[in-house]
Write a structure and sequence with these properties.
Elements: H1 18-33, H2 43-53, E1 70-74, H3 94-105, E2 141-143, H4 155-161, E3 203-208, E4 212-218, E5 225-230, E6 247-253, E7 256-262, E8 277-286, E9 289-297, E10 306-314, H5 333-348
Antiparallel strand pairs: 1-3, 1-10, 2-10, 3-4, 4-5, 6-7, 7-8, 8-9, 9-10
């Protein structure tokens, strides 16, 4: 089975509570259950696994649908966008992967804390990190071919998202405008592995029925989230009904589950919530690998749709290794953000 090195510590924790420590221990064991090879060093074994699975029928549920059920985990650290250093290069070489992994291993943890450091800079040592091995791909984005988020179509869209490529700026005028993560309101969509140092966006569990698919997403200190994807042909909710996770409707195209999600209550990467939608394609490659492709569309924000690829490995169903993690930030995070914003406003005056 492909998967991260069994010595990799996959820990989903940012708080020092007993609850979050139990979550960390659970994900350490989960990392071990995914196999003893790193993505960088498992080329031959991966090829052999795919060759062995090729031609075999796709696992199916008792009612005949492709079986996507199980706990799936991101196996490698891949950046969302391609860096300038790797411009024009889709994959890293073995030597580049090895060099990157060596740099990861040099993380000094708490020893990085220097005199005059602000806030908790350097306060976490290596035990709080979940350092995944370097992935072979140079970007999660597979379309456009340059591995970059397309430029924005208007100056207004650029202002919303930093030319369509930066994180959405958050106004701190009142609690309702603050991002849901520091408020402990659960995960945002599209649930991408954007911070693998703390295992954020890396683990999900799929369950199926004849008429729906449920996806539980566990994401470090922010808490989890439950999506329900209806397969019974019902229409989307009215446009004025918005939710954090959007409104998902799915159907099968061969062995691939295709999911369209709309009605988002918040933007992603500067998009317009009223026109933004997300198309996902879940395909079980073989017994141990799942491919999740996500296409983002918004004609009022980007010049063209763009697609990311997230490759995931399966853990043993019997281990039940997803633990809830604590969200202590909800006790003080929002207060600190609002107080800081007011002081910044006073200083500006």
């Amino acid at each position: 089975m492909t998967g991260p090195d069994s010595s990799a510590i996959l820990i989903c924790v940012q708080v020092r509570s007993i609850v979050s420590w139990s979550a960390a221990v659970g994900l350490v064991l989960l990392g071990s259950s995914l196999g003893g090879q790193s993505p960088a060093g498992a080329g031959k074994a991966k090829a052999a696994t795919k060759a062995k699975a090729k031609g075999l029928p796709v696992a199916r549920t008792p009612w005949g649908s492709p079986d996507l059920q199980g706990v799936w985990f991101v196996m490698a650290d891949v950046p969302l966008e391609r860096s300038a250093v790797n411009a024009g290069k889709e994959f890293l070489t073995d030597a580049e992967i090895a060099a990157s992994d060596i740099r990861k291993g040099l993380n000094p943890g708490r020893n990085a804390r220097a005199s005059g450091a602000e806030d908790v800079t350097g306060a976490y040592n290596a035990v709080f990190n979940s350092i995944l091995k370097t992935g072979r791909r140079t970007s999660m984005i597979i379309d456009p071919k340059d591995g970059k988020i397309p430029p924005s179509v208007t100056p207004a869209a650029q202002g919303r998202g930093g030319a369509g490529r930066g994180a959405v700026s958050q106004a701190n005028d009142n609690p309702e405008n603050i991002a849901q993560s520091p408020r402990c309101l659960g995960v945002p969509m599209p649930f991408l592995p954007l911070n693998t140092a703390f295992a954020q966006g890396t683990v999900m569990q799929l369950t199926q029925s004849k008429t729906s698919v449920s996806i539980y997403m566990e994401d470090d200190h922010a808490g989890g989230g439950n999506r329900v994807i209806y397969l019974d042909g019902r229409p989307h909710l009215p446009a004025n009904v918005k939710t954090y996770l959007g409104d998902s409707r799915g159907h099968w195209e061969g062995n691939t589950l295709v999911v369209e999600t709309t009605n988002f209550s918040q933007a992603f990467r500067g998009s317009n919530p009223d026109t933004y939608k997300m198309i996902e394609r879940f395909t079980r490659v073989d017994a141990n690998n799942l491919k999740r492709e996500i296409t983002f569309e918004d004609p009022k924000t980007w010049t063209q749709p763009w697609t990311v690829l997230v490759e995931m490995g399966k853990t043993d169903d019997k281990r039940q290794m997803i633990f809830d993690s604590a969200c202590h930030e909800g006790n003080y995070g929002m207060t600190g953000i609002l107080v800081g914003a007011r002081r910044a406003e006073q200083a500006a005056k």
